[in-house]
Amino acid sequence: MKKYEEVPYFKGIDDRRNILSKDDLKGNYTILIFYPKHLPGEYSEEVLQISQQHIKYNKISGIEGFDVNLIIVTPDTEEYLAGLRDENDLDITFISDKNLEISNLFNVIERDSVQRKAYILDRWVRLRDVCEDTNPIFVDKLYEKIENIVFDDFSIDNNIEFRRAKRSFSIKKVSDLEIKKIIEAATKAPSCFNNQPWRYHVINSDEKLKKSFEYIPDGNYWMKYSSALIAVYSKKEDDCALNDSRDYFLFDTGMSVANLLLQATKMGIIAHPVAGYKSEKLKKFLNIDDESVLITVIAVGYPGAGEYLTEKHIEVENGPRIRKELDDILKWN
Ligand SMILES: Cc1cc2nc3c(=O)[nH]c(=O)nc-3n(C[C@H](O)[C@H](O)[C@H](O)COP(=O)(O)O)c2cc1C
């Protein structure tokens, strides 16, 4: 099982004799811990500590109603586990895995015995982390790991936060392979009826680039230092066009470009879309049909020192990201 992969489907009987399956875990984070039969010695103390942490787990996000599923799977019978829960007033759900079906699915059996191991799953029931450290660190490690995951998930994605319309390119060429990868990310965008109306034309040969730069106005002088230009075009006929002027080709292509920008950021590549180019001339040069709109051109390159930038652009490059307040763009109900 790899990180970010959904765990396999499983179903078991809990200590209240209810059926509990993977589907019941959806929508909450889950700590799924496997223990050997009869929770020997030191482990029973550990289970008590983990149960006491449940309240703390539920407070990690600071959001009311946030609930972490805390589930222990052992080969013990439901009666044994119900007794254990009641005796110790445990705030935990047990699954009785008598035939070791779930333990086998999660690969926790070694030398005919279930090994103590915790899986941390997210709201999609994807594997996010594993904890198998030895006593007495286990309980603390478990808390630290789930706390890190939730903090990370609840913050804005690193690449969304980091992406900027940068202009300082290095002279090093971005490889075709990397360009293909960022365009592949672009193709993962949703589109109306899955029409995928976006079209990409990469210009990265020296000769074609030189000619294309002739269609870039002086205001966008910095684009002439990029390693590649990606022309993005689409046409109304290639996507949903609904009666009330809702033509989705521009919208869907925009979503696709957003994916491209984020994938590029993730790979350490600047991808800066612009509207400033001589559209008709560039369209002709690239043999783009008349019906299509050349929506944007994306300047691509590795980050560099940008010695060629004007004072104004140096300031923007290192300046704060200016955004409207949420209240100016958001209404509720
Ligand atoms: C459709 C579009 C057209 C743009 N045109 C230009 C342009 O012609 N020249 C330029 O330097 N930046 C251009 N930009 C970049 C924007 O100025 C930049 O995204 C905006 O100021 C926000 O800054 P940020 O992307 O760093 O957050 C364009 C961006 C978009 C999405």
TrEMBL record:
Protein name stated in the entry: Nitroreductase
Domain Alkyl hydroperoxide reductase subunit C/ Thiol specific antioxidant: start-end pairs: 6-123
Organism annotation: Oceanotoga teriensis
PANTHER family, A to Z: NADPH NITROREDUCTASE, NITROREDUCTASE
CDD domains xref list: TdsD-like
Any Pfam family the entry gives: AhpC-TSA
InterPro entries (alphabetical): AhpC/TSA (IPR000866), Nitroreductase (IPR029479), Nitroreductase-like (IPR000415), Nitroreductase/BluB (IPR050627), Thioredoxin-like_sf (IPR036249)
Gene3D superfamilies: Glutaredoxin (3.40.30.10), NADH Oxidase (3.40.109.10)
Annotated ranges, domain Nitroreductase: 160-211, 244-302
Gene Ontology molecular function terms on file: antioxidant activity; oxidoreductase activity
